[in-house]
Amino acid sequence: MEHLFPKGFVWGSATSAYQIEGAWNADGKGPSIWDVFCMIPGKVHGGHSGATACDHYHRLEEDVALMKQLGLKAYRFSISWPRLMPAGSGAVNPQGIAFYNALIDRLLDAGIEPWVTLYHWDLPVALEFGNGGWLGEDISDHFAAYADLCFQYFGDRVKHWITINEPWVVAILGYGLGVFAPGRVSNAAPYLAGHHLLKAHAKAVRVYRDKYQSVQNGRIGITNNCDWREPLSDTPEDRQAAERALEFFLAWFADPIYKGDYPECMRTRLGARLPSIGAEDRALIEGSSDFFGLNHYTTMYAAASGAAPGSVYGNGGLSEDQDVALSVSPEWPLTDMQWAVVPWGCRKLLEWIAQRYNNPPIYITENGCAYPDQPKNGRVHDPARVAFFEGYLREIHGAIQNGVDLRGYFIWSLMDNFEWASGYDKQFGITYVEPESLRRTPKDSALWYREVIRNNGL
Ligand code: GAL
Prior knowledge:
Blueprint lengths: L9 E5 L2 H4 L12 H5 L22 H10 L4 E5 L2 H4 L9 H16 L3 E7 L5 H7 L7 H16 L5 E6 L1 H9 L13 H28 L2 E7 L2 E4 L4 H24 L4 H7 L8 H7 L6 E4 L3 E6 L14 H4 L1 E4 L15 H14 L5 E6 L15 H19 L4 E7 L18 E3 L6 E3 L1 H12 L3
Parallel strand pairs: 1-2, 1-11, 2-3, 3-4, 4-5, 5-7, 6-8, 7-10, 10-11
Antiparallel strand pairs: 8-9, 12-13
This protein binds beta-D-galactopyranose (GAL).
The site of beta-D-galactopyranose (GAL) has 12 residues, from loops.
């Protein structure tokens, strides 16, 4: 990488609890909705589960040493709510506290800044079955109480908090299409779940700001995910379709936080299925992020539905609601997820965010790609992944040159892990994890990333 990034730019990598920790029922941990979802035949590729995953719970020393070896400056991980509070509320598990204390301390000893996500999809089962999960009225209060506990125990050392990872995925894949836990199918539930996710985020932020921020001096925000949507043609219909797709994807969650209400096109199209944000909710939600967390993976063309019949597929949310036909160019290379590699889409998305939300500080909290990597003679060559990162970082750098206030970049993921409904079939890691022994081998992309970090003068 010949480009230099701004001083203080945060270079990191990310994981999440359920995808790497394993130890699903060890030391007092309660079950999560993913533990249960994986037990339902046919839900997860190959019947895989995160029961052992990368066994990070037992290998944290080794993993922090790996991060240090890779030169990482920041590490984004998530706390497992049921490891800390086995039933989601009430009793606290001291062994869970001890585990995250040890992880945070080891990271700081290694000069690595912990970035902590409070919710990366592993809801305590008790809250799903007893309270209706993200559809339940009281879920946001339970989340705020759990967040309070995390600030109380870890906030002396953790200075960057992400409340919720990708509410879009929780709402659409978990409560709309039913392909992720808890596996519900509905065309109204996602919007109610989304509303509760926003309130949960905002209540946690309020707790942090009221009780902790002035003493602990950290920053708190939410991470949303969004692909770029490029108009298929220059017609007003296709341009509107692309804009609508971005609004149903990202503005759904970002507009309430930055503008105080859901996007108009969602309100008109969804009617009563979209809860309204009343004065009280608005006071809670508006302004509730110190930074804009973004997970970005791919780009698709958007056209007015009907304009490109038959082209609706994948990654579109509830496509009948947004009325957008999505497609990809046959010229775009695809990753193992069948996601197109389109680096300029990332720049356009960053510029769209900067423009719509008055240039907030942005962190890319995830970007990466899956490829079927195998070791050869002890090395893992992954030139496609290096090319992917080179392309995306070049465009990201371009966005910064154009005035976007981007402050950090986290590669998804530190190591191959449990990729949700795809099980272990899809490998996003810059480190290869051997299936049986779980031995870690940094891939060429990890060594390349280390050089990028070094060249940026850190
Ligand atoms: C994100 C998610 C991660 C990871 C990644 C790759 O949506 O936050 O947990 O799985 O996608 O699919």
